Amino acid sequence: MLPNTGKLAGCTVFITGASRGIGKAIALKAAKDGANIVIAAKTTHAHPKLPGTIYTAAEEIEAVGGKALPCVVDVRDEQQINDAVDKAVKKFGAYTIAKYGMSMCVLGMAEEFKGEIAVNALWPKTAIHTAAMDMLGGSGIESQCRKVDIIADAAYSIFRKPKSFTGNFIIDENILKEEGIKNFDIYAVKPGHPLIPDFFLDEYPEPITKKMESQGAVPEVKEEKLQPQPKPRSGAVEETFKIVKESLSDDVVKATQAVYLFELSGEDGGTWFLDLKSKGGNAGYGEPSDRADVVMSMSTEDFVKMFSGKLKPTMAFMSGRLKIKGNMALAIKLEKLMNQMSAKL
């Protein structure tokens, strides 16, 4: 773990989403230095499935040596953001550090505020265990994740750097390696267990994926009897599967080794499959000849957007537009394949 040095004592940190999860972990790490923390989040009353409010977070922050200012903030409401900033300035003076959820803006803001405010983006290399991950990934997902502590340590490392350190897109593990951290098992929920690569990074370590598959890190799909369905009308989904089928090869099958089932709602919906286990591969309407390793449920509209590159599967998954059952490592493999196919669709 990255040790606290006291360097953030007296600094004011404005953190959105600090009532729980990653935001709160960053807040507690900074608070141990004696930092002032502005807790900008929506939760004022405990949720039955998501513990923590801005007030309970404030108590934890002050218990470890920081000062807290809980502010009710919905980041979609500009007035609430402005009000929280005004309250922060009134209580603590100008804030000196901020956590943003807008990586797309990093380069522009880094240039705009050069010499005044450092603007950097931080992202995890692997999945991080939070309440949201439990809801999205289901039972047992935590064993494939790291703790929020790794993000807190990485953010703390960034906070300690000078204002000239700006405009960077940082991966948690990489910056901690630069800090001299060598043992990353301390951040794992289950040390030694294969980890899920983060959904939003464009890198999928093959050794990790293969290790996850060999150890069955995610429960397999339960067999269910599917009812016969009428032949679908021709349309965008059928055309998409036609192009996908034409793109298949023995090399693609060898690299993937999975069967995908798509439960689509809407026009041209129904059950469709992509078989990347059989020689040469196969795709089309109905049930696959072999049991599916992954079942994906979504609308036909989102399916077409997904395969044409207009909707990232990970974004659809995290927003609830895509539901996944089965082996998550193989689901990640499919996204990589989609990226290769999107130019043809």
From TrEMBL:
Q: Which InterPro entries match?
A: HSDL2, NAD(P)-bd_dom_sf, SCP2_sterol-bd_dom, SCP2_sterol-bd_dom_sf, SDR_fam
Q: Which GO terms describe its molecular function?
A: oxidoreductase activity
Write one Pfam family the protein is assigned to.
Answer: SCP2
**Key word NADP present:** yes
| Superkingdom of origin organism | Eukaryota
Annotated segments matching region Disordered = 213-235
Primary localization:
mitochondrion
Q: Print the keywords alphabetically.
A: Mitochondrion, NADP, Oxidoreductase, Peroxisome
Q: Does the keyword Oxidoreductase apply?
A: yes
The UniProt record lists the SCP2 domain at 246-338
Where in the cell? Mitochondrion; Peroxisome
Q: Which family does it belong to?
A: Belongs to the short-chain dehydrogenases/reductases (SDR) family.
Which purpose does this protein serve, as stated in its record?
Has apparently no steroid dehydrogenase activity. Controls bile acid (BA) and lipid metabolism in response to nutritional cues.
Designated name of the protein: Hydroxysteroid dehydrogenase-like protein 2
